[in-house]
Write a structure and sequence with these properties.
With about 120 residues, the protein is an alpha/beta fold. Helices cover about 20% and strands about 40% of the residues. The protein is built from 3 helices and 6 strands; from the N terminus they run H-H-E-H-E-E-E-E-E. Strand 5 and strand 6 form a beta hairpin.
Amino acid sequence: MKKTLTIGAIALMFALPSNVSAQQPAVGGYTGPSAVKTLTVAEALKLRDDTPVELVGKLEKSLGDEKYNFVDETGSVVVEIDTEDFRGVTVNEKDVVKLKGEVDKDLMHTEIDVNLVEKVQ
C-alpha cells in the first residue's frame, strides 16, 4: 500500500507543472506603426480581395450568423466577426470601434472578414 501511494505521489509531481506561468504563452507583440492605414468604407469597397484593412466606425446592427452591418461617414459594409475575434471586448451600436481584417470580395458582393475588434476611447 505504501509503495502504491509513493508511486502515485511521484507520478502526480511529474504531472503537475512546477511553474504555472512557464506553461502560459507570453502575450505581446509589435505595437508601432503599421503599413495598413485606416480606410473609409468607400475606400475599402474598391480594394482587391484579401487586401488588409483597418476601419473605424460603428457596428450598426447584428445580421446574425456572425455578420454585422458596419457604418462610417462614407457608407456601410457587411463585416464578419467570429466570436473569438472580439477577444473579450463588448460593444453596442453606439460604440466607435476599430476593425482590423481583410477584404473578402466575390462576384456579387464585398464583405470585410474581421480578425480583431478594438473599442475606440
